[in-house]
Amino acid sequence: MVTEAKILLIGSVFLFLPQAFADTDSPVPQAEQIVVTANRVDTPEDQVTSSYTVITKEEIERKQKTQVADLLRDIPGLSVTNAGGPGKTTSVYVRGADPASVLVFIDGIEMNDPLSTGRGFDFGNFSTQDIEKIEVIRGSQSVLYGSDATGGVIQIFTKKGAGALQSSFEGEYGTYKSYRLQGNVRGSIEKLKYFLGVGHFTTEGFPASDQALGNTINNGQSLTTLTGNLGLELAPKTTLNWSGRYSNSNYTFSTGGPPGSDGFGGRTGDDPGYNGTDVQGYTKIQMNSWITDFWEPQVSLTYSLNHRTSDHVSNPLNPSASNFTYDSNRIRALFQNNLYWGESQNVTIGLDSAVENGTASELYPPSTADSGIKGRSDFVHGIFVQDLLKLGDFFGTLGGRYDIHQYAGNAFTYRIAPGYKIDSTHTTLRASLNTGFKAPSLYQLFSTYGNSNLKSERSTSFEVGLDQELLRPGTKLSMTYFQTNYDQLVTFDS
Predict the structure, then answer these.
(1) Lowest mean pLDDT among 100-109, 175-184, 199-208
(2) Per residue in 55-95, pLDDT tens?
(3) How far from 136 is each of 77, 171, 245, 419, 474, CA to CA, in Å?
(4) Which residues of 330-344 are buried (b: 16+ CB within 10 A; e: fewer)?
(5) Distance between CA 47 and CA 421 in Å, rounded?
(6) Contact between residue 418 and residue 430 where contact means Cβ atoms under 8 Å apart
(7) CA separation for the pair 67, 200 (Å, rounded)
(8) Using the 8-state DSSP alphabet, how is residue 131 labeled?
């Protein structure tokens, strides 16, 4: 299960266009974009050395997409695949890297499933309900985020409460007997800010298998989502925040292809017996405080869970039956210290520790012995430091990280990323050299197909880029050359 892979792209060029042009002869000043995910702290966009894209609240509202995956399709360097309609497995590739090499966060909470084959994240059940902003960072980010970030990081921020009491409600109805209902309330009471959102989406769907071959069974979905945020000011410059999200999806699916047999005793094409569930949830509590004018410590504790089932009920078209259930969770603690020395230097030092647990039941058919995973777990502990510099027109980051994984061994990663801005031409030059690692998932370690002796994947990547502001404010031309090499790549040997 060890191999090597290499991904190369030359001359990736894209235009970032403003969402609208004002009807005026004078350019409209553009608000400075702040990027959080690239450096784990608020960073002005002209000091970010990584290739990134920010999907703003205004863009989300304008595009009227109901699924996060549909928003990601338009981002340079990303490709999205879907296994057949709403609720089905949806994977996101960053720069051609495996979807399991993309680390996904919601409000700073890691959402990758430790019990999936490669610990990837399935976007098939992730709606845009109550989403405020999305940040996509391309390239290895292991120094700040540890395992699973060798391809990139996608972070999704949900809406927060503020100001006077506000409420909203939306309803839609459309093709395939689809309807969507969602509403929220937000506001603040003295030192308490709050937000609560709820939504439901149902569709009859359409045949995922080729209808020209006689497949007619619709693949539908029912999805319910709850989102909540609370923020309390405990003292001047000290806040306590809680956030949580829960989604529950039920769907039906077909195996695809023309009606017949797959060669392993299963049926292809139409089959009314397949159904599945996907439950995702998380909760996080975090305290931020300014101890002094230059020291900002942050302490957070998060819990995330995944519950997946895939069943087949015996029927005249396919008398075989099966039942697969996967339950996993992750507990993570983070102690991050941001140290500011004027406007020229920001040092971030963090301690990161996580424990993952997983149990799986695999019955095919249900009368046979269970070949699943029985209560296995692993842990990883890490320490990282990054220095963010701004000296005149020069800016850059320098960082390192050391991780200890219970089974896959230890890993040291580093990042060197300089940049230079030429004010006279509004040109920014940037480069980075990164190393990364990806620990094997619980499934890769302990399933029937697993290998408990697997070691972590390793990656080395570099990129050089140029960003050129054009005549119209908010319009930018970016060009990037990058290359990523993977060693000890873990894959499935059939």
Answers:
(1) 199-208
(2) 999 999 999 898 999 999 989 999 999 877 777 889 999 99
(3) 10, 29, 20, 19, 18
(4) bebebebbbebeeee
(5) 9
(6) yes
(7) 13
(8) E
Residue 164 in tokens: 């006077």
Whole-prediction pTM: 0.89
Tokens describing residue 182: 């969602």
The DSSP output letter for 53 is E
What is the Cβ-side half-sphere exposure of residue 90, based on CA atoms within 13 angstroms? Answer: 21
> Reduced to 3 states, what is the DSSP secondary structure of residue 31?
coil
- The CB density around residue 188, as the number of other CB atoms within 10 Å, is 17
98-134 core/surface letters (b: 16 or more CB in 10 A; e: else) = bbbbbbbbbbbbbbbbbbbbbbbbbbbbbbbbbbbbb
Beta bridge partners of 346: 340, 388
Strands (DSSP E) found in 108-237: 109-110, 131-138, 152-158, 166-174, 178-189, 192-206, 219-235
Give dist(CA 178, CA 86) in Å, integer. Answer: 11
Residue 403 near residue 457 (C-beta atoms within 8 A): no
**Residues paired with 260 in a beta bridge:** 268
Amino acid at 250: N
- Phi/psi of residue 72, each to 5°? -75, -20
CB atoms within 10 A of CB 240: 15
| Structure tokens given for 267 | 């049926």
Cβ contact 225:199 at 8 Å: yes
- State the Cα–Cα distance between residues 396 and 426, nearest whole angstrom: 18
Classify residue 367 as exposed, middle or buried by CB count within 10 Å of its CB (0-12, 13-18, 19+). Answer: exposed
Residue 308 parent element (H or E) = strand 295-312
CB atoms within 10 A of CB 307: 17
Residue keyed to tokens 């149902």: 202
Q: Which residue reads 């424990």 in tokens? A: 355
